[in-house]
Amino acid sequence: MEHSFWHNKWQLDQVGFHQENGHPELVKYFPKLSEGSSVLVPLCGKTKDMLWLVEQGYRVTGVELSEIAARDFFKENGLTAQVSERKVNGNDFNVFQCDQLPIVFVVGDFFNFNGESFDALYDRAALIALPQEMRADYIRHCQSLLKASSHGLIITTVYDQSVASGPPFSVLDEELISLWNGHLERVGAIELIEEEPRWKSKGLTSFKEHIWVW
Ligand SMILES: C[S@@+](CC[C@H](N)C(=O)[O-])C[C@H]1O[C@@H](n2cnc3c(N)ncnc32)[C@H](O)[C@@H]1O
């Protein structure tokens, strides 16, 4: 996906992927970490899930292309931030350090992002937002940013891509298992076709989310 695709979405406020109440399965399945653990949220949009992670006692770093998403995130949640510019390997990032909560919101291309080694990963609508040819790089980059002892949660979408196309793309279990190439357990499979009229109207009879943890 070109960066312009996502920048346009944010400029036109076409952010149907955003969940006003966060993702229901996060609460149920996110691994229990020790107090103060660091959680990386790639391609974070303006997800409220970052607030839930902070409420659990974790420090959160979100990485997102769109500065509109960052500004919306702070404004809509009644938060403020100190903004600074950072160069990583010659690439520009704007870093929003939240004043009230342990949240760092980094604006820039995730593929150029480099930071600490994180204790955990939370991926909702990140891997599945990327076309197949980008997914191996994405997983490799996530893994390079995680400690060997890391935990995490990835949510994939699974549907018949010969009937409808993404994003969100369908990422089959075999693909994720092969890309991740490490311990990963599928703990949930949720059928959403009745709640997603958009997919039903495209002719799909099933649209599932699969929840993975390690
Ligand atoms: C489908 S949205 C999901 C957002 C968020 N995870 C959520 O659950 O609401 C995908 C997001 O990834 C961002 N994005 C796409 N490519 C990116 C990249 N290379 N680096 C950082 N963010 C990116 C887009 O701007 C968009 O906000």
From TrEMBL:
SUPFAM superfamilies: S-adenosyl-L-methionine-dependent methyltransferases. GO terms for biological process: methylation. The keyword Plastid does not apply. S-adenosyl-L-methionine binds at W10, L43, E64, R124. It is found in: Cytoplasm. GO terms for molecular function: thiopurine S-methyltransferase activity. It holds the Pfam family TPMT. Its EC number is 2.1.1.67. PROSITE patterns: SAM_MT_TPMT. It comes from the Bacteria. Keywords: Cytoplasm, Methyltransferase, S-adenosyl-L-methionine, Transferase. NCBIfam families: PRK13255.1. This is Thiopurine S-methyltransferase. The lineage of its organism: Bacteria, Pseudomonadati, Pseudomonadota, Gammaproteobacteria, Oceanospirillales.
